[in-house]
Write a structure and sequence with these properties.
heterodimer; A: mainly alpha; 2 domains; globular; B: Beta Polymerase, domain 2; Rossmann fold; elongated
């Protein structure tokens, strides 16, 4: 049953992404409306899928790579939809939509969730840890995409090309503020994720911090974004440098998310391995 | 009834010819009245702008109408026909309809997509309506023209992208800063284009204008105009920390700002972007400065490049506009053709009614003994005869409204059968 719901979501994501991309080329506002509505439907449906899994397992379904990718896709859709209300970056869907679709499809192709979850994992701290971490990561993912768009648009203006992207992308100011807003949301979420995770760790293993590779890399990611925020507030790191840092930060984050699990060992390993 | 458009524009006539033939606002009225007096012309509208003089009219006799317009133009403007004859173009039927659609949609303009022309056509039409020189066909055509022009503007990007240097500068500033509200501007030097750009920026909400000029008094005068303040040339480097957009247009023969002047600037600005618009030739601002992060430098050639790009883009959009116009032209043609059936029927009825009245008059004048009841009976008799006779021809005519290929032929035959067009003249 659950997988059928997920399948519908994926279908909606696919069509939505296709229409978003079409919108970038044809610039018909109606197309954007259609794509955006479809994404909302896909997202709501996806929420239903996750909630039903949660009800069944008693915990967020993140015990396998199948689950984590699905939740990551969901969180990106969530942040994207929320940020759209404020920034209305019309062409962003053509980039984020396919990302959500891709993650969902990979998730769907991987083996499903476990039948039961060990009681060890049934803790509210852990639930909060999972949600904040994923939402934070999603915000950073959007910041990265927006950062790439910033670099494209800046290139167009600096090189004095009035090409395809110049016409379709919004002002540098808007891209920069949106990237900043993503970091502003992502950073407290990441912080909360790390804090709740260590509280949970204290409850279960009796220590807040165990120098697990995942923890170390999360710490590195946190420091990176902390530097970005600090520099922005004090010296005014904005524009190009902020965009580059957002992209860099997300690359490190991706390594923390996947790389650590595949290359290094640690107690998070199983979640993002199949 | 044929729709005919006779005129000349910037593509066919030189400025000397155009200015000789252009109608001043107060001349349009008398011109319309005079030309309407011609027996060849049933409806007429006169459009006169700095780029074109065009007569849009309906006529039964195309060559007669063309000659009328030519001799009218020659007479009214006191110009021999030879001077403008070569520049004249004449469009008939669909071509005339298409042309007025294209003109109104600004596809035929010197700068494709410029918005003024639609307003000019509207006021030309208003004049014609006031003087009643426009009738059912042109009324319909002009209303269609306005809606087509709006559709083209709405559905294509024909009006997108700046096509003047000062607007191109504003557009770029928008792409960098988004909102221009509250942005600070520094104008270095003076000059029409630069001042125009400042005006545009101010209209977009830019605030606090400062002016630097080699002659301080000039700077003060200019600053007053913009409600800003004057600074000396020596203060520029220092002042850069507080402005967002710099427009430079001095007569200096060398760079007045080079990279060295900007040392530490971005640190003081907290990396807030700054946009240099260099309109001067030779250039005022070292293009090297464009390499600094968050600084953007555009010189006059760059801006012209932007304009050219926008014009190309408009040309591409114009093709979409042509498609819209083609559809509208076809639709108008079918309306016009369907219109022909109705006046034909009306004309036939009128002719029979005239005959009936004439014959009744003749009969009653000899039939002195007939009682009022008898007269009424005879009246009724003639009416019902006409109705019975007309019944099938009318059905036939109405029916051929839907037969695209033979319609004009049938209407033509019908008119000849009843000799309608001879009697009209």
């Amino acid at each position: 049953m659950g997988l059928v719901i997920f399948k519908i979501s994926i279908l909606l994501y696919i069509v939505s992404s296709a229409v978003y991309i079409l919108y970038v080329f044809l610039q018909k506002k109606a197309m954007h409306r259609i794509a955006h509505t479809l994404l909302w439907l896909g997202f709501c449906n996806h929420t239903l899928f996750i909630v039903s899994d949660y009800a069944e397992l008693g915990q967020m379904p993140v015990q396998t790579l199948h689950g984590t990718l699905s939740i990551f896709a969901w969180a990106i859709a969530f942040i994207f939809l929320v940020f759209h209300i404020r920034f209305k970056l019309m062409v962003l869907g053509a980039f984020v939509g396919p990302l959500i679709t891709f993650l969902s499809i990979v998730s769907y192709a991987l083996p499903g969730k476990p039948a039961t979850v060990s009681p060890l994992f049934k803790s509210l701290w852990l639930t909060v840890h999972i949600i904040t971490s994923f939402v934070g990561n999603a915000a950073f993912a959007i910041a990265c995409v927006v950062g790439i768009l910033y670099l494209i648009q800046e290139g167009e203006i600096k090189e004095k090309r009035q090409g395809f992207f110049y016409r379709r992308l919004p002002s540098l100011k808007l891209l920069d503020s949106m990237g900043y807003a993503c970091i502003i949301v992502g950073f407290p979420m990441l912080t909360a994720g790390i804090l709740t995770g260590s509280i949970y760790s204290q409850l279960v293993w009796g220590r807040y911090w165990s120098w697990d590779p995942k923890e170390v890399w999360s710490g590195i990611t946190w420091i990176l974004y902390a530097i970005l925020l600090h520099e922005r507030l004090t010296v005014g790191w904005q524009g190009r440098r902020a965009a580059v840092m957002s992209i860099l930060g997300f690359s490190v984050l991706l390594f923390t998310f996947f790389g650590v699990n595949f290359l290094l060992k640690g107690h998070h390993a199983v979640f993002t391995k199949w | 009834m044929q729709i005919v458009l006779i005129g000349l524009n910037h593509k066919t006539a030189s400025i000397e010819v155009r200015e000789r033939l252009a109608f001043l606002p107060h001349e349009v009225k008398s011109a319309l009245k005079e030309i309407r007096g011609s027996s060849w012309i049933s409806e007429v509208i006169l459009l006169s702008t700095c780029n074109r003089v065009e007569f849009l009219l309906t006529t039964q006799n195309v060559s007669g109408a063309i000659d009328t317009v030519k001799s009218f133009l020659a007479g009214y403007k006191d110009t021999p026909v030879e001077v403008f004859e070569k520049a004249l173009y004449v469009f008939q039927g669909d071509d005339a309809v298409r042309h007025i659609f294209r003109v109104a949609s600004s596809l035929d303009s010197m700068v494709v997509g410029e918005p003024q022309i639609l307003g000019q056509i509207k006021s030309a039409y208003r004049e014609a309506v006031e003087l009643r020189t426009s009738g059912p066909i042109l009324n319909r055509l002009l209303h269609k023209t306005f809606s087509v022009a709006k559709q083209v503007r709405r559905e294509t990007g024909i009006g997108d992208g700046a096509v003047s240097v000062s607007y191109a500068a504003v557009e770029l500033a928008r792409k960098i800063f988004g909102e221009l509200k509250g942005k600070a501007i520094l104008l270095i030097g003076a000059g029409e284009m630069a001042e125009l750009a400042v005006d545009h920026l101010r209209r977009c909400g830019a605030k606090s204008i400062s002016v630097a000029n080699r002659t301080f008094e000039k700077g003060v005068a200019l600053a007053q105009r913009f409600n800003g303040k004057a600074i000396s040339m020596a203060e520029i480097s220092e002042h850069l920390a507080h402005v967002d957009i710099v427009i430079s247009s001095t007569g200096a023969g060398h760079y007045i700002l080079v990279r060295d002047h900007l040392k530490g600037l971005m640190r003081r600005r907290k990396n807030r972007p700054i946009f240099f618009i260099d309109i001067a030739v030779p250039r005022d601002i070292d293009p090297e400065i464009n390499r600094v992060s968050n600084i953007y430098v555009y010189d006059i050639d760059d801006l012209k490049g932007v304009i050219e790009e926008n014009l190309n883009e408009r040309e591409k959009e114009a093709l979409k506009g042509e498609r819209i116009i083609e559809t509208a032209t076809i639709r108008f043609r079918s309306w016009l053709l369907s219109l022909d059936v109705v006046p034909t029927i009306v004309a036939i009825r009128q002719k029979l009614e005239d005959i009936r009245q004439a014959e009744l008059k003749k009969t009653f004048s000899t039939l002195k003994t007939a009682s009022p009841e008898d007269r009424k009976a005879i009246e009724r008799l003639t009416i019902s005869m006409i109705n019975k006779i007309m019944h099938d021809p009318i059905l036939f005519l109405k029916d051929c409204e839907h037969k695209e290929n033979v319609r004009s032929l049938y209407i033509d035959v019908s008119r000849k059968l009843f000799n309608l067009d001879e009697t009209q003249e």
